[in-house]
Design brief:
Elements (H helix, E strand, L loop, with lengths): L1 H19 L30 E3 L7 E3 L3 E2 L9 E3 L6 E4 L16
Antiparallel strand pairs: 1-2, 3-5, 4-5
Length: about 110
């Protein structure tokens, strides 16, 4: 019986270690990572067609539009592909909705 308990304890330990070693999702940022600390103020984009928000109050949103050549100058965290021309996304998170659409729906 004691060996069965040791096996269960060992498997539980392996499971917890595998959870902590899991790859982080690059699209999810915690407030402790210093991303999205800007509250209110100017939005880091002029307009946004694809807004991704949490259901929290206030909502935490980011624009997932892909821009060719670079991000808006107000964007603090711009990540671009290494292709030519580069395709870029602003990874700034704001505590508000994204604002006006770039291409209004017909």
């Amino acid at each position: 019986m004691r060996s069965a308990g040791l096996v269960v304890a060992f498997l539980a330990l392996v499971f917890l270690v595998s959870l902590s070693a899991a790859r982080e999702d690059p699209d999810i940022f915690l407030p402790s990572q210093g991303i999205g600390e800007e509250v209110g103020g100017e939005k880091p984009w002029a307009c946004c067609d694809s807004c991704l928000c949490t259901k929290s109050i206030p909502p935490q949103c980011r624009c997932t539009d892909q821009l060719i050549g670079g991000c808006d100058p107000n964007c603090k965290t711009c990540i671009c592909t290494k292709s030519y021309p580069p395709k870029c996304r602003c990874y700034d998170i704001i505590n508000d909705y994204c604002g006006e659409r770039c291409n209004p729906e017909q």
